[in-house]
Amino acid sequence: DKEHTGDFHIEEAVEWPGLDLKLGQVSGLALDLENNLVVFHRGDHVWDENSFDSKFVYQQRGLGPIEQNTILVLNPSTAKLLHSTGKSLFYLPHGLSIDKNGNYWVTDVALHQVFKLGADAKEPLLTLGVALQPGSDKNHFCQPTDVAVDPITGSVYVSDGYCNSRIIQFSPNGLYIMQWGEETSLGRARPGQFRIPHSLALIPDFSQLCVADRENGRIQCFRLGTGEFVREIKHKSFGRELFAVSYAPGGLLFAVNGMPYPGEAEPAQGFVMNFSTGEIIDTFIPLRKRFEMPHDVVASEDKTVFVGDVHARTVWKFASTEKSKAYDK
Ligand SMILES: O=C(N[C@@H](O)C(=O)O)c1ccccc1
Questions:
Q1: Strand 193-194 to strand 182-183: parallel, antiparallel, or no bridges (unpaired)?
Q2: Which of 78, 98, 214, 289 pairs as cysteine with 198 (C-beta 3.0–4.6 A)?
Q3: Predicted confidence (pLDDT) per residue in 40-74, tens digit
Q4: In angstroms, rounded to a whole number, what is the distance separating the alpha carbons of residues 310 and 24?
Q5: Cβ(270)–Cβ(305) under 8 Å?
């Protein structure tokens, strides 16, 4: 018999108790080498209209760094806290990713810096950028948003940022290699132009780096190592803002968009796409509570997906529900 499986579908795993966690603004998610869920959150700090002046200088240094542990390692099924770190280091956490050696790579938009942390190191192993100093040269970022590390070459890619429009490549030990990208000019957004490069997904199998080009409501993918534009993925159902993008081994690309603007039809939702064709094969929203500002998404090989939300201060879990299997007689 030839077996057909139903089309792909994911829905919220309502048995996941992670909704009860008391978290700060959840900005970044990653899966570690044991497939535990790692959450990067802001404890008692919030990013609001008063956080920065017109020159993007952080205004709340007087608060000191976040005293809570900002990096939480959770059991992906029970949401039990396995390990936590990252206290007294950060002011406004943003992006998080984990390299093939299990090191954490994070960005802080208040410090305008990127850090490499050993899973249990208290002090960063590597620091890029100058604390609290926004800029756009080789040694300064402006509200850097995410980091991705190539598992084959160890190259480090940084999406920089809310107040810059570029992707920078560094060597494994943090030497500036090259950059690409420019501000979106008035009118149509052209390839290689950004309006908040907000999240990165590195796809080793295809040697591509995909960027959530947030305010252009699109994903742009580039060739690793050269920064050459490969293609854009954009759908009407993304609406105006596309916040995060993530790749799961096996060829699926995941994304979350922003809340609809007044009058827009499309709700905040998650998307599952076939990486090769760029086509949407499923969309998802929570059954419990609702997306407010879905900010990061991460997916494992078995199609378990987690979404972190900055305003809802929540992490939802989604799992694939293989539809009914139909058999040819
Ligand atoms: O986008 C914003 N924040 C999120 O991305 C986030 O990372 O919190 C933001 C915009 C205006 C004012 C304050 C915050």
A1: parallel
A2: 214
A3: 999 999 999 999 999 999 999 999 999 999 999 99
A4: 8
A5: yes
pTM recorded for the entire structure: 0.95
Ligand 1 atom closest to the CA of 243, numbered from 1: 5
Query: In what helix (H) or strand (E) does residue 270 lie, and over which residues does it extend?
Result: strand 270-274
Angle at 170 between CA 31 and CA 208, to 5 degrees: 60
Per-residue pLDDT at 4: 35
Compute the distance from residue 328 Cα to the ligand 1 centre, in Å: 51
Determine if ligand 1 sits within 6 Å of the CB of residue 47.
Answer: yes
Supply 216's token pair: 């252009």
Percent of all residues in the chain with a pLDDT value above 70, rounded to a whole number: 96
Q: Tell me if residue 216 falls in helix, strand or coil.
A: helix
The phi, psi pair for 305, rounded to 5°, reads: -125, 140
* ipTM for this model: 0.96
Q: Which residues pair with 135 in a beta bridge?
A: none
Cβ(48) to ligand 1 under 6 A? yes
Question: Which amino acid would we find at residue 138?
Answer: K
146, containing H or E segment:
strand 144-149
